[in-house]
Amino acid sequence: MIVVCRNEDCRDSINRKPEDPRPMVRTGETSSAWAFACSTCGARRLVTKDQIGGTFGAGKTDEGRGKGLTRYTAGVKFR
Fold first, then answer.
1. Is residue 28 a contact partner of residue 10, using CB atoms and an 8 Å limit?
2. String of b and e for 30-54 (b: at least 16 CB within 10 Å)?
């Protein structure tokens, strides 16, 4: 699936160029969503993984930690 910009002011959005919109660039991943940004206007968009696919739990958690609690949880030690 291709994620496109929906900003009405963007010249490359699906609203202005329905035949040939520019795809957004993936900028990040959380455990439940992908983050995208438009390279033309800079608009940002989050799309959940249940809509476009992806592995739930991969990427940073919604609290900002990454994969593996021992590496990203400050002050907590696991054995």
1. no
2. bbbbbbbbbeeeebebebebeeeeb
| Alpha helical stretches, state H, 1-79 | 49-52, 69-72
The number of helices, as runs of H, and strands, as runs of E, in the chain is 2, 3
Structure tokens at 56: 């739930």
SS3 4: strand
Q: pTM of this prediction? A: 0.67
9-18 pLDDT, tens digit per residue, is 999 999 999 9
Q: How far apart are CA 26 and CA 3, in angstroms?
A: 9
